[in-house]
Batch of 3 targets.
Target 1
Amino acid sequence: MTPLEHPLEEYDSVKTWFKGLREQSGVDPMSDPSRLRLLGEFCAFVNLDPDQVVTACLLAKEGRQTKISIKGRRGMAEKIAQFQSQLADVDSAERARRGNTIRSFLIHNGILLQSGIQI
């Protein structure tokens, strides 16, 4: 992956995620550094920065409002599933946490994703 241009905390999508966690859940996102670590790992896995991860789930057409791309969202859900399962030595709870962290990031950025069956 091309190195990120900025620290993760400086990306607009990460700021949106953290703001949503604070406002909707009362969670201090900085109290759990694993959130940013997992997002960084996922970004490296898909070779995109956080803002590009969100943009990959959107469809922009000239003269029309940007909307969620079904194909983009489906593709990102597949990448999350691959990211969850890539480490054979982690238990199912940790695999679920890895995926849920990335889904949380996307959901707080307006991209609805469901987890499916967690095994």
Target 2
Amino acid sequence: MKARQFKFNGLMVRMLREQMKLRPHELAKLTGLTTRAIYNIEHGRSPNPRLSTMAALAQALHIGVHQLIFEVPQK
């Protein structure tokens, strides 16, 4: 049996941020991250953020951490 693989969904961060009408610098302030880090996350330049980063994003966006990851389909 193959191990399941998961990926972080930076696009979800952007979509939720925009739904909440937050600008990147506002989300950065809520999470303790830099605006550059938010930009990198949202644009896939930070594909494997730390769990603490995902937790901070989830808390600021009022969602569970599990909503920021997705399972990669097996071939």
Target 3
Amino acid sequence: MGITNEANLRSILSQNIKRFRKMKGLSQEKLAEKMDISTNYLSDVERGRSWISPFSLVKLANALEIEVYELFRPQEKVSADVSATVSKCLEDFSSSLRVSFEKSIKDSMRKIQQNL
């Protein structure tokens, strides 16, 4: 699945959270506890029903012992141009921890769509 719109991005994020959580042998309850968030909130994020703040993304990545960008990496192959654009957007995101996560994602989506 490529990143072509917000719904796809949410799907990629939610699938990756669940995949990494299961790889680490963590229940939603244990992961939520490690992040100091509610299990219901984590469940909503994992199902793509809620967005997660940049600070919580960092906490999530730390709890899963991965880099933040790995949460947004599509599992199927995408073209080198799309992959490079996603990587650049995620580098910008993780290095500056933008104040508005929604704005960052929309900007990233616009850049990706321009390169398709």
